């Protein structure tokens, strides 16, 4: 039976999965520190929409079909891995530039909504995580309304998580710290993105 306890269980599990350090949260934090609150919020909104898309895929049962299709899942993993490697290259290139970061950057050409959307849309592991989270609180007898309520709750929670990351890391203190240690942060971020991208591409060639 689906009740408030089941919904709370799903929400807690989703919060832990979505808020934990990963490519999406790392990206929104870095962009917020580098480009400010507006860019961070737009990027986070894109991430939230991409995550919501995979939630709908999982809720409608298409996630199970995708997971069963090794070819489609492998293609998505390759695309997602390639995008992560591109992000790694961008961060590495930024780390190699000796720019004066004593003042905030004035350029307005920073990753925004579209980049956040693409990042989470290119992560096929998200649908698997959604399926696992929904399964925690929903049994086989769960109605469509119950599934959509749980999915909608997690969508709102996902948006709140990314917005919170953007707000926290776009504070003056966080941005000042980034300007002082930009090359170290960008270098570390490049390494993490590269590791995630290579791992996703390797998993595309591993038979399930």
UniProtKB/TrEMBL annotation:
The keyword Transmembrane appears for this protein: yes
Alphabetical UniProt keywords: Cell membrane, Membrane, Transmembrane, Transmembrane helix
**Pfam short name (any one):** LysE
- Which InterPro entries does its entry note? LeuE-type
Residue spans making up a coiled coil are: none
Q: How does it sit in the membrane?
A: Multi-pass membrane protein
Q: Primary place of residence? A: membrane
Spell out where the chain crosses the membrane.
6-29, 41-65, 71-89, 117-138, 144-168, 188-205
Q: What is this protein called?
A: Lysine transporter LysE
Q: Which organism is it from?
A: Thalassospira povalilytica
